[in-house]
Write a structure and sequence with these properties.
alpha+beta; Glutaredoxin; four-stranded mixed β-sheet; 6 helices; 40% helix; elongated
Length: 183
């Protein structure tokens, strides 16, 4: 049986670590639940091990539904804005890549959320087998090699200028729709 570990999830503009989120998501995926069923089951499992403020319940439910949809391929991440993920162990190469990304963003005059992912299981779930790796809005740009500053800047400009056209979700999730099990 999986042991509960912390996993980061984006709630609004903040990344929050939740104990047991991985296990609950994996169980929902294995059971082939709908987004609504999975969001309810995952939220119930997660709230047993984590403090969730009453005022934030709806935002957590929505974020869990979006994460489940993303992991099962029902939606992509482009609706979130520019999200850059640096994947690796936290070594000098990974830190150098983060510095390079920040320099490229400054040169391009573009803002983005930068996340470092050190957990090997999470890196594997993202489909990356070599590190350091750079992922921009869910798309791996390079893995196992150090890119040039010009390459990173070009990728950032390319993604930032691309029209935002999220994939349609097969099961729309709206705030509050997770509270009513008949929906």
């Amino acid at each position: 049986m999986d042991s509960p570990t912390g996993r980061m999830i984006r709630i609004g503009n903040t990344s929050i670590g939740l104990i047991g989120l991985d296990v609950a998501i994996n169980q929902a995926i294995a059971a082939k639940m709908t987004v609504h069923e999975a969001a309810c089951a995952i939220f119930t499992a997660v709230k047993e091990r984590n403090y969730i403020p009453a005022a934030m319940v709806e935002r957590y439910q929505t974020a869990i539904a979006q994460e489940y949809s993303r992991l099962t391929g029902l939606t992509d991440e482009r609706h979130e804005g520019l999200v850059i993920r640096i994947l690796g162990s936290g070594c000098i190469s990974c830190n150098g890549l983060q510095t390079m990304v920040i320099d490229a963003m400054e040169r391009a005059g573009i803002a983005a959320d930068i996340e470092q992912i050190h957990d090997r299981d999470e890196i594997g779930r993202l489909g990356v087998t070599a590190t350091p790796a750079l992922m921009i809005n869910g798309q791996v740009k390079i893995a196992g090699l150090k890119p040039s500053l010009a390459q990173v800047e070009g990728w950032i400009r390319e993604v930032a200028s691309a029209p935002v056209t999220p994939l349609p979700s097969r099961e729309p999730v709206t705030p509050g729709s997770l509270d009513d099990p008949t929906k």
